[in-house]
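Me: I hope this is not a bother. Any chance you could explain this protein sequence and its structure tokens? It all follows right here:
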Amino acid sequence: MSAITAASNLDTSTSELNNALAQLSSGSKIVTPADDPAGLAESIALTAQIGQTNAANDNVSNALSFSQTQDGYLQQVGAALDQMSTLAVEAQDPTKSSSQLADYNTEYKALAAYITSTGNATYNGVSLFSGTDGTTTGGLKITTDGTGDTFTMTAVNLTAAAYTGATGGDISTSTGAVTALTKVTAAISALATDRSNIGGNEERLNFSSSELGVLSDNLTAANSNLTDVDVASESTKYAQYQILVQSGTAMLAQANQNPANILKLLQ
């Protein structure tokens, strides 16, 4: 019986030693589902939520890059409109000849063509300034969290009447220059509104990005508490069970010697 008891204790110590070794080598305290069934289920849900949150944050980051690209283009469009307005005022000078007005008009048309071509710009194949996401009218719809909530960015449309009116102007005559100046002024006002809307989009997306970053960190910390092994504690257990296995092995050998000692009494 002493040998059976020693063998049972040795088996328990060996099992605990192997479990401690598995946790230390894997870095996880849930090596098999039997270690913590409830903790494993919660960890699986948290891991999925972390992945969803990080994916949503990637979406938001891409949307921010999209908005920043839009604003970069619109800065140049604004510079072009400023120059067009200057040309329209200069073309109203009655002392300028028709050939000079034609030169001003040539520059005006070149700037207008630049604005028109900018309206066709894309970001990763998605139109920047068509005022549509390719499926619905309006701005891009961005998924902002792992539960599917979305934010629709305010669209920018360079084919709107305010812009096409300015790009379609002609300042080869003083009368045309007066009309063109009115339309360019309207385009500049529209540009100011569009850039303001882009700024609002970026601010909203920055808040979402910060929120998702904090959420991801907290979810990761919660999952870590469930699954990550406490190396200091588990190392202590490993040393404890290693000693128990060694002493248990020695005691089992000793217990197996007891029947032999009894037989010697019969010799």
Summary: The longest strand covers residues 141-143. Strands lie at 122-123, 126-127, 141-143, 150-152. The first helix runs from residue 2 to 26.
